Amino acid sequence: MSKRYGMVIDLKRCIGCHYCVVACKMENGITQGSWARVDTVGGQTMDTASGEYLNLIMFYLPRLCMHCRDAPCVEVCPTGACYQREDGIVMVDYDKCVGCKYCIVACPYGARYYNKEGSAYFAAERPNEKLGYRPHKLHMTEKCTLCLDRLESGKEPACVEVCPTGARHFGDLNDPQSEVSQLIARKHASQLLKDLGTEPSVYYLSP
Amino acid sequence: MNRSEEILVRTACPSHCAVNACGILAHVKEGKMTKLEPADFDGERRKQICLKGLSATQLLYHPDRTLYPLKRIGQRGEGKWERVSWDVALDIVAAKLKEIAEKYGSRSVGWVLGGPGGGNIKFGAYCMLASLFQGTRVSCWGYGDAAIPCAGHVMFGHHQLAPFTGGFDSPKLNIVWGHNPAETSPFDLMRRLMDEKENGVKLVVIDPIFTPTASKADEYISIRPGTDTAMALAMMNVIINQGLHDEDYIRRYTVGPFLVRNDNGLLLREKDVISGGSDSYMVWDMETDQVETADTTSSGGSLVGSYTVNGLGCKPAFQLLVGLADEYTPQVASGITEVPAETIRRLAMAYSTSKPASIYFSNGVGRNYHGDILYRAICTLAAITGVTPPPGDPHYRDPVLNWGAFTHPNKAAPSYTRIGILNMYDAITKGKPYPIKALWFAFHNFVNQCANVNKIIGELIPQLEFIVVADMFMTSTAEYADIVLPVCTFLEHADLVNGAALFHPYLQLQQKVVEPLGESKSDMRIVSELAKRLGFEEYFDKTDEEFVDVLLASGHPSVEGISVEKLREGPIRFKTPQPGAGWKFRTPSGRIEFYVERLRALGEALPVYKEPLESARTPLAKKYPLVLISTHSRFSTHSMFRNVPNLLDIEPEPTLTINPADAQKRNIRDGDMVVMFNDRGRARLKAKLNKGIRAGVVATAEGWWFRQYGEGGLNCLTSDAVNPAQNISYEPNMAMNDTLVEVKGA
Amino acid sequence: MFQERQTTFGWLVSADLFLSATGGGVFLISFILDLLNKYEPVARIGGILGPILVLIGASFLVAEIGSKAKLYKLFFNFNLSSWMSRGTWILTIFIIFGLAYSLTAFTAFGWLPWSKATALGLGIGMVAALFAGLATSYTGFLFGVVKGIPFWNMPILPLLFFLSGLCTGIAIILAIASFYNTIGVTGFHQLGAAGTVLILLQLLALGGYLEIARHSGVTSAESVHLLKTPLFIGGVVMVGLLVPFCLLAYSLAVRNMLILSILGGVSSVLLLIGGLFQRYCIVRAGVSRPLCCT
Questions:
Q1: Contact criterion met (CB below 8 Å) for B446 and B424
Q2: ipTM, two decimals
């Protein structure tokens, strides 16, 4: 059976450090935002809680593309630019993307981003930027690729590697012995917005 | 992919966070660093890096970097500069330093060295210079981190406290006291706490704010800021009353059995008892029922009771501690701390019965006027419970580097005079203990980060005849310089790097990844060039790497066999001393001194509870009712990285965290701009409502540059009050969290 | 917390939605008038305006698209399951067939081998009418299939957009009639009556939509809440529907041609403005489902 990449994120361990956010930014040369995001679940802004003392509630929810098995973005893309590989990674074919943004609206997880600004971090491009960053497709949609380049050289996605508390686990969902499969089977992992039927490849362990 | 060849350079982050020193693998193409990633380390767990380190590319190539020496034209703070060559700049500096030294004495020239983190050679360079010049070295421990050494020096004779109360293997309980490792120490401490929690070890967090760390706690205890000592004393009260203290430990390793004279509070000595006697401490032997010297007693000595020796009434030091603890029942402590009495009692029982239990703290909880006492109280709690490992335990480890070569290179002449940064204020404005007339700030953003900025700008700066700032950027401090010298980042020079020994016992070589940009230089190169003009050339005739070898040549077993050549291959774990290898408490008595003689005049021989200088229960609170705490954000190390686009994209501006009840009273909504103010100054920033902060307390992250506030800044509000007790113990600490403010909509 | 209103689509897309619906609607009504052999001068203009409006609407869509140079890919790389792909072809076929049908009414295009009277012409017209209907309602499906935004994910949306398209379509007809003044008092009364019925149906659909959405969970209720703005309540409901309804209802009792023209003209402008604002408000009120609950 072919591989199917997936991730399990342990919300007990996520401390909202945002290292994954920056690792994704640096790995992919993203200037505004990131393809990995972290939400604070509790109050209205980052690091705020809901409830009242003694029962204050605050935890962190890392978000990324779910690489859904039944992806709405693939279904709605008018040119077929949004496609899904056999290993489950949902990718953008930049030759076909026209930048209609329908997929951005159709994604229930907010995991797709429209690149309208270009790649430079500073007002003028700095000396290292041409040499280092992946080419960005202006006026097209971008998204998490599960760091495909890194996977091809045997590494894990940048967000997984950088997590300081070991909250992220990555592996082959089709292999019942893999760490991710074991975690899903033994620790009641759940998926976000399961009732929408998107069948995400990213699972969460409750906080 | 790319035609040009890519080179990989292994270097290390110089531990800006003062906990870890993450290995970095830098990718270089055509002489430019294109990206960096964590480098391999021994074991996967150490292959790590934080979001600041990952963003170092943006520090290196930041367009705002100062790349050329600058000379001030116009007034200080006006922002008018003239670019000059290194020769011109250093000629001016050398001439001015010599001139001022001649006029006021060499001590009037001071080097203010920042940190933590920055590399050992970088630091050593200035120590050498200050020593040879016989100038002043201004210690920056007092910039918020001196309370721990104050406690450490008087109680243990050691600078750091962490190993005395925490970091134990297989703990049964973890207490994180006023510390937020989820933001400031995630790799080691937080990861460890999470792993242990998964194995069933309960996590208790004590903090006025429901921090990210607190959100992971099994039990979160909200406490009134600055009152933690009362809680520790009440815990001691419970433990002693339940008989759960470790008498044997107290007898053997602490001053508990030593008799203290009732009349003058000094420890009883043999010469007080017999004429011609020694300085030996005295205990009451329970078997012989008479006083004996501490070394000859077989029973160890009584811990309680009242005795008369030679007409002198005395009590064992532990008895005095019991007397103090008796005053702090859980009820009394509850009244002070606003923590329920039952919670305190329960925690005390858990702490003393789940052994080993670790208590972790950091500098924040002690940043109030009496912060040093708090650390003494917590360490006393650990000691009397028998938690603190005895001397010689392998838990204690520190690399011993050859600092002597840097702090006193010319043994034939006197070295620098050391002064704490808070004491420097009076040295500048009042000439006490001696005048300081010129300052060189190296990797220290004094004007932005230190207490009472309006006083710094209004009173200190005008009194300084010459100011040099060596920094990467035009910081708030550099704006007031006469000469600005461009320093390169850690990616542009070599150095020796290590993290905090308890968490990261490695030495690493920081290697040059790219050539220094513009005309920037490493601090060691700058000092070397200046040294030529001051006649110290012979001491600086080495490369940065050769200096690393000097530093490693301490002859101490911990660094045996480690050299630059070996470090080029990768990080090396320094050797921990064997058990019993001469490690001991370096107090006068050789024991844990929870009773400190030299603080008795101030009534602080024991870890007594004293209310913070500016608390909700002081008269000032009528005018300024809110306690201001400054937190340490994950997005910066002090003021470093606050100008980096990656991180500004996530958190673009300073915010003031305020409880919704307090906000509503003041008609403040989430996201409104507000002004916080007190008699010392003001700051304008955005409000962030959070139910997780106690009513009566507001918090903001330190490190934001003044230009990033709407107006003013955090340290316009903090106080430079000097605690005389800390001057006795070690060095006075800036009590950043001992600040009252009021807040209103802007 | 990820419960934000969507900000990707705004005025450009709303303009396209409005124009394609209006274009489809006006063509449909014109075609019906043709079949009933009524008001030919008005119907022929309506018939030609239909595809033109849709074409203008498409230009807004093109403005919205990021990589305009790759526009052709929308046609040749189509994805059958995508409503945007389907819409591209629906609009294209409508424009072609619509123009083919309507241009024959103008002497300049007399050389075309069919006319509205011939079977071929009628056949072309029927295809055009079918695609006009689809053009009016397909955006309801485009938005309706977005599972993550409960406010859009409602069965009634295509019907609502269809009715709205007919309303704004008849508004164009009224505007043309008011301008050209060739349909007489009876004509105005008939159009006015049809208009009032369509507005009523739309109010019913809109009211039903909002009421059910309010009770379809927290997120869609939040969307409905976001509509409590002057733009929607004032612009869409009052000015865009209720006022024209009243004016048109009143006009049924008026016999003065001038006043009828004015009433007709004003109602049509209000209906059109209301239709545009309605699209915009619905587009902007789309709130995504929160990813997890506290």
A1: no
A2: 0.94
